[in-house]
């Protein structure tokens, strides 16, 4: 185990359990977060607290961040008094956030100018796998940097890979999110068609999930639709829409057609515009339910 000091910025739904896994594994961990209750929670378990981005960067040798959006990621890494502004030669900087490739490359170039190394290392698996330390971690950037932090990644993830040069980690994550968006919309359409035809949604899910129609997003989303537990937003519509927007930018920049992705992007855009942005991702079905005049929900036992 490395004896280097590790910093973690961003104690959100994913970052907090990731930080706990590092702390529980015995790493010397310093944290920084805007929301103080989460900071105090993990500080009570033994983490050191930094008052600012500049302080945590100066105090730590390896800096990880898991942030909610592109603007926050760019502010933290590229801001006037951010991570890279305070980085030194030999620093290893890791962004676990889902951002665009241009952001990842800008961070890598700025870090290199300071003699530091940057990895774009987005994650997949949701909060449950963050808690269980079984995340998928896809890391792009210098192999030397990856080799230096791979044991740290192994503490948080179950499937950890070096994907190649800067931007490839982000590329793989966006490919993943393209399927998340498409499969979520497809699951909503399928469950709605079953309900509109009079079939029991719970039975539809049981049988389809045992056949060729099974998918991870069907398994994740169908129970939410059936029980209508959309408020437990482990992955809100607005975040999926953000990712689908990044996918649109990537596809256009490289000239790749994504017809199903275009449909998913339009559907999630409408869902967000309809006020569903803070609900869990399967809430995209609600607009389709309105058009069909039926809800996907558990049948009454009466």
Structural write-up:
There is one protein chain. The protein has about 300 residues and is of the alpha/beta class. It has two domains: about 5-165, NAD(P)-binding Rossmann-like Domain (Rossmann fold), CATH 3.40.50.720; about 170-290, N-(1-d-carboxylethyl)-l-norvaline Dehydrogenase, domain 2. It is built from 13 helices and nine strands. The strands form two sheets. Strands 3-2-1-4-5-6 form a six-stranded parallel sheet, with helices on both faces. It has a three-stranded mixed sheet with strand order 7-8-9. Strand 1 (about 5-10), helix 1 and strand 2 (about 30) form a beta-alpha-beta unit. The longest helix has 29 residues, at about 170-195.
Shape: elongated
Run of helices and strands? EHEHEHEHEHEEHEHEHHHHHH
Q: Note the total helix count.
A: 13
User: Biggest sheet, strands in spatial order?
Assistant: 3-2-1-4-5-6
What structural category arises from helix and sheet content? Answer: alpha/beta
The helical percent reads 40-55%
Count the E strands: 9
CATH class division of the largest domain: Alpha Beta
Give the overall average pLDDT.
96
Assembly classification = single chain
